[in-house]
Recover the amino acids of this structure.
């Protein structure tokens, strides 16, 4: 089950470079965001402006194509204590579907 958390606009109220559709989150993602005190709108702003987080260069290229050609877009952000290396922090994903109807906050294990 997914919960709605935003209305499809970037945090700054500026029209995003790609449509977000309905923004939703899995319960585990919402719990994790709350647990670490993370504002989901800050991550959504990063996602919609092309800051894809921690991705392999091939995935970055895929996202660049996705933004231009209407393909799926994935961002991956390490969250949690900043003093820990990114590789040891939990990941939060944001996925915008190719048809641009939905953008979902989720944990990798939710996939």
């Amino acid at each position: 089950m997914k919960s709605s958390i935003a209305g499809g606009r970037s945090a700054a109220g500026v029209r995003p470079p790609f449509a977000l559709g309905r923004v939703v989150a899995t319960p585990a993602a919402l719990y994790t965001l709350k647990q670490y005190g993370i504002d989901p709108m800050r991550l959504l702003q990063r996602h919609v402006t092309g800051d894809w987080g921690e991705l392999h260069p091939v995935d970055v290229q895929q996202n660049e194509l996705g933004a231009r050609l209407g393909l799926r877009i994935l961002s991956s952000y390490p969250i949690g204590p900043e003093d820990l290396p990114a590789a040891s922090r939990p990941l939060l994903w944001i996925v915008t579907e190719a048809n641009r109807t939905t953008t979902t906050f989720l944990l990798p294990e939710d996939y």
In short: The chain has three helices and five strands. The first helix runs from residue 27 to 35. The first strand starts at residue 3 and ends at 6.
